[in-house]
Amino acid sequence: MQKLRTVIVDDEPLAREFLRLLLASFDDVEVVAECSNGKEAVATTLELRPQLLFLDIQMPGMNGFEVVKTLQSDIMPMAIFVTAFNQYAVDAFDLHAVDYVLKPLDEERIRRSVDRALDRLKSQSGTNFKTPLIGAIDAISKRMAADKPGDSRSESLPDGMKRKLLVRDSGVVKVIPFDDIDWVDAAGDYMCVHAAGETHVIRSTLRELKAKLDDKLFVQIHRSTIVNVERVVSVTPLQKGGSLLHLSDGGSLKVSRNYRESIRNLFQ
């Protein structure tokens, strides 16, 4: 039986050890790596392509939500959030069918989560696992913004905002020039816009956002991904016909076979 390749992500060594010892007793789980922060989690996921993340939310630096937003949809594995969040966050997870385990950790609850992950892997091959995760994150962000209302006067923006994207973030509307956008990733009806070292979640389809962007600057490389070609520093061919784009910020994006010609034409 093939084991579920799993990565544990938590900034607390004791929490990682406890979870590793619990998962070691499961015949159908193989822990392939442990990460102590979000940046390690992203790099490890890109390198090892695990099927499951046990992902702590509250970590310094890049938290668990930011890990999800940073990963390309095609690379995003299933994720079980490990959380001490309060009830409204748990309600959002339940609403969007996102799995979670509450701290302190409980072996029976982890067993149920692993069983669900195995069932999901068998029945939903090729599913975009990022979509429900982003839906839950968006719901939690909106609730947090409602608890801390911002100054809505920033919504009154002048006309003629061409080549700029408006993003609501915790009650504040941010104005992002298109030229600052590094790449964009779709997760259902949500878009993760990566710009100037930050990731912003907006309600939009890929088609709607693509129509706004400069098609000489932004190229679609996957059914769910658009990249700013000025951020690409090198291209590595992959064995199965796609390729990997290496970006100036150190990240990398997968180009699917269906879109390889558009990249090849740009970098001949």
Chart the SSEs and their pairings.
Layout: E1 4-9, H1 13-24, E2 29-35, H2 38-48, E3 52-56, H3 64-70, E4 78-83, H4 87-95, E5 100-102, H5 107-123, H6 130-147, E6 164-169, E7 172-177, E8 181-187, E9 190-195, E10 198-203, H7 206-212, E11 218-222, E12 225-228, E13 232-237, E14 243-247, E15 252-255, H8 260-266
Parallel strand pairs: 1-2, 1-3, 3-4, 4-5
Antiparallel strand pairs: 6-7, 8-9, 8-12, 9-10, 11-12, 13-14, 14-15
Instruction: Estimate the mean pLDDT confidence.
Output: 87
Name the structural class.
Answer: alpha/beta
Q: Output the radius of gyration.
A: 19 Å
Helix content: 25-40%
How many runs of DSSP E, i.e. beta strands? 15
* The first-level CATH class name of the largest domain: Alpha Beta
The separation of the N and C termini measures 44 Å
Shape: globular
Across the major sheet, the strand order is 2-1-3-4-5
Largest sheet: 5 strands, parallel
Order of helices and strands: EHEHEHEHEHHEEEEEHEEEEEH
Tally of domains? 2
CATH topology of the largest domain, anyone? Rossmann fold
Regions with little confidence, pLDDT below 50 for 5+ residues: 151-157
Please identify, by name, the CATH architecture of the largest domain: 3-Layer(aba) Sandwich
- The DSSP helix count reads 8
Please name the fourth-level CATH homologous superfamily of the largest domain: Response regulator
Beta-sheet strand percentage? Answer: 25-35%
Jot down its keywords.
single chain, 268 residues, Rossmann fold, OB fold (Dihydrolipoamide Acetyltransferase, E2P), 2 domains, five-stranded antiparallel sheet, globular
